């Protein structure tokens, strides 16, 4: 079995069909899918809105909104969304259109492969990742100085609207208008008017729409609660915790780790043997003084330390990494050390019927060049070769998607380092707050009313 190409999904599952709704016009709710509109026709449709003096709603027989049980969603009035800016385009994995430049799907499978390479090199003992369709969404020019909280919210929504455990979440988050930076501001203001988080509304002076005000996990909790999507806040005051930062790390590890099975099945054995696994856990939002990030997993390094793996909205992946993530791990050639190149050369020579004996180095300097320095964590001189598990059986080079002229070349160490958040950096702060999603049934109106005051649970 080719373990490097296989994604293992652990946790709850659902046999219910996907609830991903149709692609609707964000101004009049026309169903683009049922009308079979091309990308150009959709663009012209929006231009017709923008060039007209007003946008009218089509008759109800022209479109159909996602169905929401009446006991889960109370009818209420919302301010109509303003003209949608191109820089505030929300995207999630099940949409048919290509992702905007600030959205990067496919990073979890890519990171999973990179972590396996890191494990092979001895730098990673074990790693656990979140739901593999999690998408990195970065800030843009218009929200560069204040948008981290909003972008973490969009990353959470992108995962919640794609997962299959609670399909109804899609309708709760997409209706009456979908997530977005400015739309989130409307969500929060609408929640304030219904009595949610009066303290937060007072702190932000009751006005958020079209401002550049920062928001945190408290406001995200209010937004999700008002829509009926269950979430929970956990506080960590490390100055009061005897174990310090380890308390936060332990909670995150426990959240992502699969439950221990009482039966020793074959699946359990294989699961325990796999050093890097993907789960169906939703990402976490980590808030601390001055910034927030999305946690997508954790890694145990070779020295036993635990590093968090995060999507930072202020730190988008490099263009080469983004293209490789969208194309898929099979389109990547991973850089390897000179030692692995020598080993593969010997194996290749043997397979061709030539002698498998290694030539004796002609001098001590030659011997020194062939030694691997164990004290260094990095590889020796880097050269580009293919892993045996990424090499196609026909022997015609690396697996490249149709139309791609050459494979993407990435260093697995650089890929993992881009997402690592070490314990030493975490120790610089004392107060943390986590927003997580228990993936339970949607909250009824009564349960929402009970949570209008923002509360949290102490993590230590």
Task: Kindly describe this structure.
There is one protein chain. The chain is 33% helix and 14% strand. It has 460 residues and is an alpha/beta fold. The strands form three sheets. Strands 1, 3, 5, 6, 7, 8, 9, 13, 14 and 15 form a ten-stranded mixed sheet that branches. A three-stranded mixed sheet has the order 11-10-12. A hairpin with a 2-residue loop joins strand 7 and strand 8 (291-301). The two termini are 43 Å apart. Mean pLDDT is 77; it is low at 1-20, 52-85 and 354-402.
Number of helices: 16
- Low-pLDDT segments, ≥5 res: 1-20, 52-85, 354-402
Q: Assign an overall shape.
A: globular
The major β-sheet equals: 10 strands, mixed
Separation, N- and C-terminal Cα atoms: 43 Å
Helix content: 25-40%
Strand content: 5-15%
Number of strands: 15
Which whole number gives the mean pLDDT?
77
Radius of gyration: 25 Å
> Which structural class is indicated by helix and strand composition?
alpha/beta
